[in-house]
Specification:
The chain starts with a strand and ends with a helix. A six-stranded mixed sheet has the order 1-6-5-2-3-4, sandwiched between helices. Strands 7-8-9 form a three-stranded antiparallel sheet, with helices on one face. The relative contact order is 0.16. Helix content is about 45%, strand content about 25%. The protein has about 220 residues and is α/β, with parallel strands linked by helices. The chain has a domain of about 120 residues: ATPase, nucleotide binding domain (Nucleotidyltransferase, domain 5, 2-Layer Sandwich).
């Protein structure tokens, strides 16, 4: 059974995992007209890694391979799939059908996914020049080409590999929410401990008074 969740719902579901459950990772998908890029998170949900760029007609087989290899080689479960909002691609992608087919091929009892509008990014991409060449978001071109040619080419590469920065943006927000939840939990814990201490102090004061009366 596939289950669409909005990003906040997926975050809440992910927090239900316990220490005794297998390690799980997120998978990121981003579509272009002829290709799709795939990214994978680390087990701590901190960093996203580019897995590859594949033709759209070959994507299903590649997704099955990557999920099966994660389970077989690393023992990782799939926590959920994050799909970039690529509504402008032609032909359009039916995400629900794609997830349903993937769920069947993997024999999953359930598969959670969400759509992510990448309007929040954890960094500001900028063009850098070094002795090795021009670099932009992890892609590099040699110094032999002009800056006018380098930037459009690097932007094309970034679009082809867009699953990685998209998933990284999701993880950035995910961890921010996680930290806020931990801070709230710690605040409630401190309040409870403070209340217990006040009650204990009051109780000890009454005991002292009783001792004086008996004496």
């Amino acid at each position: 059974m596939i289950e669409y969740l909005n990003p906040l719902q997926l975050f809440r579901q992910s927090q239900k995992r316990t220490y005794y459950m297998p390690v799980a990772v997120f998978l990121g998908l981003s579509f272009r007209d002829k290709s799709a890029s795939v990214a994978i998170s680390d087990k701590g949900y901190n960093i996203s890694y580019m897995y590859g760029v594949h033709r759209r007609d070959k994507l299903m087989d590649k997704l099955v391979d990557v999920v099966q290899s994660l389970k077989k080689d690393c023992g990782y479960d799939l926590e959920g799939i994050i799909v970039a909002d690529n509504s402008s691609v032609v032909p359009p992608v039916n995400i629900h059908n794609l997830m349903e087919d993937l769920c069947k091929k993997l024999n999953f009892q359930s598969l959670k996914y969400t759509c992510w509008k990448d309007n929040i990014t954890p960094w500001s991409p900028e063009l850098k020049c070094s002795r090795f060449g021009y670099s932009f978001c992890g892609s590099t071109l040699p110094l032999g080409c002009s800056i006018e040619k380098a930037l459009p080419e690097l932007q094309k590469r970034l679009e082809r590999n867009s699953a990685q920065p998209m998933l990284q943006a999701f993880l950035h927000v995910f961890n921010t929410l996680h930290m806020e939840r931990d801070e709230e939990s710690m605040g409630r814990f401190k309040e409870r401990e403070y209340s217990k201490r006040k009650v204990t102090r009051r109780g000890s004061g009454k005991e002292k008074k009783r001792c004086k009366i008996i004496q």
